[in-house]
Amino acid sequence: MKRSEYAGSLFVVVAPSGAGKTSMVRALLAEQPGIRLSVSCTTRAPRTGEVDGTDYFFVAREDFVRRRDAGEFIEWAEVHGNFYGTSRAWIEERMRDGDDILLEIDWQGATQVKQLFPEAVGVFIAPPSLQALRDRLERRGTDSPEEIDRRVAAAERELQEAGRFEYVIINQEFATALRQLGAIIEASRCRFGPQYARRSDLFEALGLVGNSSN
C-alpha cells in the first residue's frame, strides 16, 4: 500500500488532433465540477474565440524559455513549432488541497508528467480509424487539405504511443466514450493513495501508514 501527500488525483488525457478530446473533456467538466482543468502556457497565437487565462496562458517565446530554464514547468514540449508547458507549483498546490486536476497535453508531455508523478492516471483517446479522423477534420472545415494530411500523419505516429497509457478509449460513439472517461475518473479517486491523504486519521488509527509515494 502506498500513501500519498496529495488528496487530489492527476489525470493526463492525450489524443490526436480531431479525436474528440476537447469536446469530451468539456463535457466531463460540465458533469463533474470537482475536476479542474489545468491551463497550460503556450507560445502559439490565440485561435478565434480562445481567451487568455481560460484556454491557455499565451506568453512570449522568450518568457517561456526563461521559465522553462528556471524549472517552473511540470512538463513542456515543442509541438508544430510552438512551446507548451504546465506550472508544477500550480498543480501541486491544488492537488494537496484535494482538487482533481486534468491535463490535456501531447504524449511527450504526458511522459514527462509520469516521471514526476508516477501515480498520474494516463488516458489516451483514439479515433475509431484514421479514415474516420480524416472525415472529422474535413467536416470541421478549419484546416486546409495540406494541414489535414499533416494532422492525419501525426495521428498515425501518436497512435503508436497509446501503449504508454493505463487506459485507451475508442471515441466511436461520443456518449459511450464520455461514460467510459467518467468511470475511469471515479475509480481512480478510490485508490488508496488519495483516500489516505483525504482520511489519514482513519488509516493511521488502524496502523495502515503504508509507504510514501508521490
SSE topology sketch:
Elements: E1 2-4, E2 10-14, H1 21-31, E3 35-37, E4 41-42, E5 57-58, H2 61-69, E6 73-79, E7 82-87, H3 88-96, E8 100-104, H4 107-116, E9 121-126, H5 130-140, H6 145-159, E10 167-170, H7 174-189, H8 192-198, H9 200-205, E11 211-213
Parallel strand pairs: 1-11, 2-8, 2-9, 3-8, 4-5, 9-10
Antiparallel strand pairs: 4-7, 6-7
Helix pairs in contact: 1-7, 5-6
Say what the CATH topology is.
Rossmann fold
- Order the strands across the largest sheet as they lie in space: 3-8-2-9-10
How many domains comprise the coordinates? 1
CATH class: Alpha Beta
Given the helix and strand composition, which structural class is it?
alpha/beta
Unreliable runs: none
Shape: globular
Structural description of this entry:
With 214 residues, this protein is an alpha/beta fold. It has a single domain (2-38, 98-213), classed as P-loop containing nucleotide triphosphate hydrolases (Rossmann fold, 3-Layer(aba) Sandwich), CATH 3.40.50.300. It is built from nine helices and eleven strands. It has helices at 21-31, 61-69, 88-96, 107-116, 130-140, 145-159, 174-189, 192-198, 200-205, and strands at 2-4, 10-14, 35-37, 41-42, 57-58, 73-79, 82-87, 100-104, 121-126, 167-170, 211-213. The strands form three sheets. Strands 3-8-2-9-10 form a five-stranded parallel beta sheet, sandwiched between helices. A four-stranded mixed beta sheet has the order 5-4-7-6. Helix 1 packs across helix 7 (174-189) and helix 5 (130-140) packs antiparallel against helix 6 (145-159). The longest helix has 16 residues, at 174-189. The chain is globular. The mean pLDDT is 89.
